[in-house]
Amino acid sequence: MPGARHRARHRRRLDVPDHDHVTKKLTLGIVVIVGLAGCAAQTPQPANSSQNKHAQAAPYEFRLEYETLEMEDGVKLAVTFYRPVARKPGETFPALIEMVPYRKDDFFALSDYGYGAYFAKNGYVVARVDVRGTGGSDGPVPVSEYSAAEIFDAEQIVDQLSKKDWSNGNVGMYGLSWSAFNALMTAHRKPPALKAIIAAHGSIDLFYNDVHYNSGALTLDYYSHQISTDNALPQSPDYRIDETYFQNRFDKKPWIFTWMREQQDSEFWRQESIKFKEPLSVPAYVIGGLLDGYRDFVLDVKKHSTAPVIAEIGPWNHAWPEYGEPGPNYEWRQRALRWWDYWLKGVENNVLDEPRWMAFMRTGQPPATNPVTVPGYWRCEKDWPVQGAATQRLYPQTQQQLANAPAPKAASDVLKYVAGAGMAAGGWWGELTGDMAADDRHSLVYDSAPLTEAMEIMGNPLVHLRVAADAPFYQWSVRLEDVAPDGTVSLVSGVSINPSQRYSRLAPQALTPGEPTTLTAPIHFTTWRFKPGHRIRLAISNAQFPMLWPSPTPGSTRLILGKNTWFELPVVPTRNTTDAACPLPPPQPSDEAPFGKTLENTGTVFTRQRDDDKGESTFSTTSRVAWTQYDNEFRSDESYQWHVKDATPANAHFKGKRRNTFTIDGVEIDLLGEIKVESDATYFNVTFTKTLYKDGTLVRERTWIERIPRRFQ
After folding, report:
1. What is the DSSP string of 396-419?
2. Are 470 and 559 in a shared domain?
3. Hey, which residues does 540 pair with through a beta bridge?
């Protein structure tokens, strides 16, 4: 979800440093890039002599080639090849595929270059492919993300590249976010030439662990609007505005309508979710981040795979390890080369003999929204689970306490529903957060006694709550927090719970007012050291605004204390220093694209406004990014706002604008996407408008309006 927005689930990164402007227009043809320095010298130095000989080889020169690949149905997909120049007749190379809908010729071109150059100079053909109906590829916009057509295309691309005259027959897939998703999905289909994948920040469960429904609860993240707007841009590199463009792109109904109609788990979400299919049998190197909403997928893949899996989880956000925020960072591409060499080139380099589990242990830090690095150390294990791991169960008690045993007497605590509470935690689980005390004021909180010795956790804490409610539907938000001796509160992790799915995700049931029921959920993967003198806090609320869309009924719920209300911490033995076995080379600079530069990148600016007297909350974001490529200039501006009143939570709203202004060969193409979502107790009213201008003149405008029944959200 791009650009300056680190938490964008599938978005682009447009923060490549400035570099010289080269006057050359993108065309279908070949741009030869020769004699580029640097990346191959960063190749790791393995132990045996044959590996050293490979690692010390001079970097390959490579070419950029803009071509198309024709699918079985005749649709041609646009591909950019980063292709090494053979050093001897008949030399062949493996292929690495990254396939996304984020427009390789404009939005992604600058940031793609460093990765394509890195692997090409080390003897790999990198193929960057636009999903059908997006970017430079032909065909209509798909019916939704990760469509059956998209994954079938990926299978065909794997097969076609394995048969190219420059290919050694072996193919890998890799990518962050969207391309991690489709790499996992394609691997499940087992095309013969696909030998291994690398996936960062992906998912194997599209309903529970993606950007649309947060553990089954509606999340109106602005990504849903961004991608629906960007899908309406003209096809690169010509950006023709004609009837074919209108039919295939501009006039296609935005995806957000589909996602909002699919409010419950179903075959729609499970069709390509590999969690519900046979175990993965293609080797996978998976990377996650403790500040990323998809971090659970790392363990999910390990548990759902019969092939070798290497797993790494760092302290950062939705990013690759060499630049993710906050640090510390490392150069993951060195290990990636060894991974590819082993599976795609047949190099015996002992990569599978190294620890297959590496995670950053956060040793506890005060609340902060912009740290460069966080304190901690790296733990490397032979595999998961961590040796010596155990669980510790804690029980909420009366007087806001946590204890090692259940409350001796039956009791319950009443929780008033405050619809606009939760802004301190941000837009999804894992944001860098300030002091959580603002959210805790509208929550039930339970604190342990001050710890007498340090406790470290790694894994998914488990929460088990006995609750009752005065209405058929509420949502629950559970947060694990660290209370420092000075009273400041740090967020460790959290989870959302949609109670209608307590018995079955496929057959939701309303709550019976007044009747107790049990809710169980794993809190999102985390690491943390609770220091001596600190308290462990469990915070429970019925709102996590704007992360969760507010439930419609003002009122209250009860937490029933006793043996059926508890949570478990995944405790691991405490250490103090990074394991010597951890492969952590320092980050290396990437090659910069010679054909453009970033002009502006504001990052995403968050604004939170809470009026407790009026019971009103507003959360808003703005961002702006601009860049050049060849003689063309590109700009994207966006703003979003979520609003709710505690007294009338059914009537929440979300609105936003995204404007893409592209100047191509002196012609200005201006696409504006506007969205408004308003709810009441029984419906969502969704309005989406696309407006297209050319050189300031209105070309086309179209509005979609739909009234969608509200179902357990």
Report:
1. EEGGGEEESS--SS-EEEEEE--T
2. yes
3. 444, 478
Query: What is the phi/psi pair of residue 100, to 5°?
Result: -145, 165
CA 627 to chain centre: 24
62 dihedral zone (left: phi>0; alpha: psi -120 to 50; beta) = beta
Select from 354, 372, 401 the last residue of a domain.
Answer: 354
Contact partners, residue 44, CB within 8 Å, separation at least 6 = 55, 334, 335, 337, 338, 583, 585
Q: Give the residue from 564, 418, 406 showing the smallest Cα distance to 477.
A: 418
Q: Are residues 144 and 68 in the same domain?
A: yes
| Cα–Cα dist 323/333, whole Å | 12
Residue with tokens 């320092």: 586
Q: Are residues 616 and 659 in the same domain?
A: yes
Looking at the fold, whether 38 and 154 belong to one and the same domain comes out as yes
Got the DSSP string for 131-164? Answer: PTTSTT--SPPPSSTT-HHHHHHHHHHHHHHHTS
Instruction: Report if residue 471 sits inside a domain.
Output: yes
Q: Which helix (H) or strand (E) holds 555?
A: none
Q: Is 179 helix (H, G, I), strand (E, B) or coil?
A: helix
Instruction: Determine how β-strand 616-629 pairs with β-strand 596-601.
Output: antiparallel
Q: In this structure, what CATH number is given to the domain that contains residue 437?
A: 2.60.120.260
Cis before 385 (ω within 30): yes
Query: What is the secondary structure of 288-352 as a DSSP string?
Result: EETTSTTTTHHHHHHHTBSS-EEEEEES-SSS-TTT-SSB----HHHHHHHHHIIIII-----GG
Q: What is the DSSP letter of 97?
A: E
- Condensed to tens digits (0 to 9), the pLDDT of residues 629-666 reads 999 999 999 999 999 999 999 999 999 999 999 999 99
Number of neighbouring beta carbons within 10 Å of residue 179? 28
Comparing C-alpha atoms, which of 341, 140, 147 is closest to residue 253? Answer: 140
Q: What is the average per-residue pLDDT within 67-91?
A: 97
Q: How far apart are CA 644 and CA 421, in angstroms?
A: 10
> How many C-beta atoms lie closer than 10 Å to residue 431's C-beta?
20
Tell me how far apart the alpha carbons of residues 436 and 445 are, in angstroms, rounded to a whole number. Answer: 11
592: tokens are: 């910069």
Question: What number is the average pLDDT over the span 576-596?
Answer: 93
Q: What is the pLDDT of residues 263-308, one digit of tens each?
A: 999 999 999 999 999 999 999 999 999 999 999 999 999 999 999 9
Question: Would the pTM count as exceeding 0.70?
Answer: yes
What is the residue whose two structure tokens read 């923060």?
A: 15
User: Residues 433, 10, 460, 403: what is their CA dihedral angle, to the nearest 10 degrees?
Assistant: 30
Q: What is the CATH number of the domain that holds 150?
A: 3.40.50.1820
SS3 content of the chain, % helix, strand, coil (to 5): 15, 35, 45
What's the domain count of the chain?
3
CA 358 vs CA 310, 362, 379, 602, 656: distances in Å: 8, 13, 6, 33, 39
**Residue 531, token pair as written in the block:** 């220091």
Q: How many residues does the chain have?
A: 713
Task: Please check whether residue 66 is in contact with residue 78, taking contact to mean a CB–CB distance below 8 angstroms.
Answer: yes
Return the structure tokens found at 469. 């409610």
CA distance 141 to 149: 11
Alpha-carbon distance of 308 to 281, in angstroms, equals 8
Contacts (Cβ under 8 Å, ≥6 apart) of 189: 151, 155
